[in-house]
Every structure is written in structure tokens, then in C-alpha cells.
Design goal:
The chain has 261 residues and is α/β, with parallel strands linked by helices. The chain has 10 helices and 9 strands. Helix 1 crosses helix 10 and helix 9 crosses helix 10.
């Protein structure tokens, strides 16, 4: 059995962390117990496990914490030796961000699409979701993730882009789509105020994060700086995604890729 004891990051990071361990367990017939996912289970229609919550409560506190050996994937180059430990131990407590099996998250994508599908009760009566996802026959939905916040300092601000840069990407995307005699409807997602002029084909979402991510997963294309938030929407919805690497909005539709985990 493999027990995920320590989560990495928030929301989308935790989803990616989970599926890599879970896919590994499915492939090699290990039981998988996620001890740090109870607060998110309800979103995906999964039954809460009171035992898991109580069990983790005691495990992460002294003195038990000192007695448990956690296989911690906290470095990119630590996988091979640590995986050997998973195979030798009957019960392994794990944590860390760098456990990766992209081959298996790709293989089991359909399974995870069902397991981590947002419960319809969260969006079925949401008129904004219904309206924004409706489109004409010659229209494509393009989600734009205006992620900033801590990006101003992360990686020395490399992926921190002003609204003007996002506008350049929007304009360039519009040109590329028009070449196919199709029109764009852009859905903007941001957790802070933005100063992009209103246009008929621009819609700003002010929904909760899990609704935004659901809408993203239903788009035809996604654009944004590198983020697991858009990455998860691309993976679960099989949506082509373009990560903004520079301020230069020069790209082709072939540059969009579906994230495989």
C-alpha cells in the first residue's frame, strides 16, 4: 500500500501529485490511500473517509511523526532509488512533488477524467457556465489565464505579464483562427483586477476556482503562463494549451499541446 501523507502545493498541484502516485499504484497493483485529499473529495463526488482524516491527524504529530519513514520525492533526481523503496515496503508513506510517471497518467487519463470530474451539482444550475460555454457553429472558445500574483517574484518575474501582453496574445490568436474562417470567443480568468477593454467577444469569469477550471477544461484552446491550473484543465479536458514563455506573441496553432500529466 502507498499512502500519500504530505500534499504539495494547493488544488491543481495536489491533483497532479495525486494522479502520478495513483497511476503508479494502478499499474503495479498497489493499494492507494490519499490521506491529504479529504477537503477536496466533495468537489469530485467522492465519499469522504473519516478514518483517513483521523489517521493523518495522528501521523503528522509528534511523537509518531518521528517513527514514520516517509519516502519524500522532494528532488527531481531522487526517483529511481526511492521507487525501489516503494517496491520493497508493504506500506509506504510518501510525499513530495517530483514523483512523475507521465506514461501512466497518459495511459489512465480516461480513468482520471471520470474520477476527478467536477460534480455536476456545482455547475448544472450556474447560468454563467451555461452562457459562456454556448457557442455558434463557427466559433471556438479560447481560455486566457491571466495569472500574476506571486509570479512577480517567482523565477525573477520571468512569467509575469502585464495586460498589454495578454492583449497581444489575444490579437494574434484571433488572427490565426480567422485564417480558418472561424471566430473566437475569449474567456478571461484572473483572481485580481484587470484592465483589458471590453469587447463583444471577451468574457470575464468571476467564478470560484473549481468552476473556472471546469470552464477551462471545456474550451477549445488555452493560453497562459506556465501553471498547473491551466495544465490540469488541459489534461482532464484534453484541451490544447499554449504556455506563454515570452512577451513576444508569435506562435502558430501547432504550438498548442495537450498536457499528459
Amino acid at each position: 500500500m502507498i499512502c500519500l501523507l504530505y500534499e504539495s502545493g494547493n488544488h491543481s498541484n495536489r491533483l497532479f501529485q495525486t494522479i502520478h502516485f495513483e497511476a503508479y499504484c494502478k499499474e503495479y497493483n498497489h493499494k492507494f490511500l490519499n490521506l491529504c485529499f479529504e477537503d477536496m473529495k466533495e468537489l469530485y463526488g467522492q465519499k469522504k473517509n473519516v478514518f483517513a482524516r483521523i489517521f493523518r491527524f495522528f501521523l503528522i504529530r509528534k511523537p509518531l511523526r518521528k517513527l514514520i519513514r516517509v519516502v519524500d520525492f522532494d528532488k527531481e533526481d531522487s526517483q529511481s532509488s526511492l521507487v525501489d523503496r516503494l517496491n520493497r515496503q508493504k506500506i509506504s508513506f510518501v510525499g513530495g512533488w517530483y514523483f512523475r510517471r507521465h506514461d501512466l497518467t497518459l495511459k489512465y487519463r480516461k480513468y482520471f477524467q471520470n474520477r476527478y470530474l467536477l460534480c455536476p451539482s456545482y455547475y448544472s444550475t450556474n447560468t454563467f457556465v451555461q452562457d459562456v460555454l454556448s457557442k455558434k457553429n463557427n466559433e471556438v472558445l479560447v481560455g486566457i489565464h491571466l495569472r500574476r500574483g506571486d509570479y512577480k517574484t517567482w523565477e525573477d518575474g520571468r512569467y509575469y505579464f502585464e495586460d498589454s501582453v495578454f492583449l497581444e496574445y489575444i490579437s494574434h490568436m484571433e488572427e490565426k483562427i480567422k485564417e480558418k474562417n472561424i471566430v473566437c470567443k475569449f474567456i478571461l480568468f484572473s483572481n485580481e483586477s484587470i484592465s483589458i477593454p471590453k469587447r463583444e467577444n471577451l468574457v470575464l469569469s468571476k467564478e470560484k476556482w473549481y468552476i473556472d477550471q471546469y470552464i477551462m477544461s471545456k474550451c477549445d484552446y488555452l493560453i497562459g503562463p506556465p501553471s498547473t491550473f491551466t495544465g490540469w484543465a488541459s489534461y482532464i479536458g484534453e484541451v490544447p494549451l499554449l504556455y506563454m514563455q515570452t512577451k513576444d506573441a508569435t506562435f502558430s496553432l501547432d504550438d498548442f499541446k495537450i498536457i499528459n500529466g
